[in-house]
Amino acid sequence: MRNLLAVYRFFRFSLHVLYGLALIKLRFGSLDLAARQLHIKRWSGKMLAIFGVQLEVSGLAGRPGAKLLVANHISWLDIAAVHAVLPEARFVSKADVKHWPVVGLLVDGVGTLFIERASKRDALRVVHQTADALKAGDTVAVFPEGTTSAGPELLPFHGNLLQAAISTETPIQPLVLRWFEPGERFSSSARFIGDTTLVQSLWSVLTAKGLSVKVEVLPAMATAHADRRLLAEHVRDAIQQALDRS
Prior knowledge:
The chain has 8 helices and 7 strands, in the order ααββαβαβαβαβαβα. By secondary structure, the chain is an alpha/beta fold. The longest helix has 25 residues.
């Protein structure tokens, strides 16, 4: 029965992805920013619904204007969860995602900034690119752990990309993501860690029952004249404390 549900979900997921590609290729060029963001919000919410994911939102409304969203990272579905709440976000993602089949075209089409994490020179380029986006009034989202974690305990936060917010004096808006399911405060089905392949992770999500994600928006933090390492630790502590009490 669970396999039949997974096949049904995969069929709907495939159609939804194709719809997203068509939307980006055929319509995005003629839409204004507000219309694009509305489509991103609807598409992302529908994506979660197809997988049977219940979305919970708590905390403050996202700060208007330019901001750097800083979130913990558990699943490849994190981007859909954030976009269902804050569709204005432009994510910074590792460069190899751009080459994933189909998914790469989708994330590229919504303005994602790509970074070669192993290259210090490329990291500096993306810091400047992120700063330019913030100066232009954009919202940029980053996962400073640099990779996905199991959920309960955060990995160390890298402060490099936070420098873009510091240099432009743009506030940081921390986001807390917690995936959970019946009997599991931190979902094992949503995790995308270790040697797990994208196909294995997709199947885990497709066969999950009662999967939910909570997106909590924490108060914005000032960045002017901050030390990036101390700021990274401060943001990490705030997100960890929110996870501990959720």
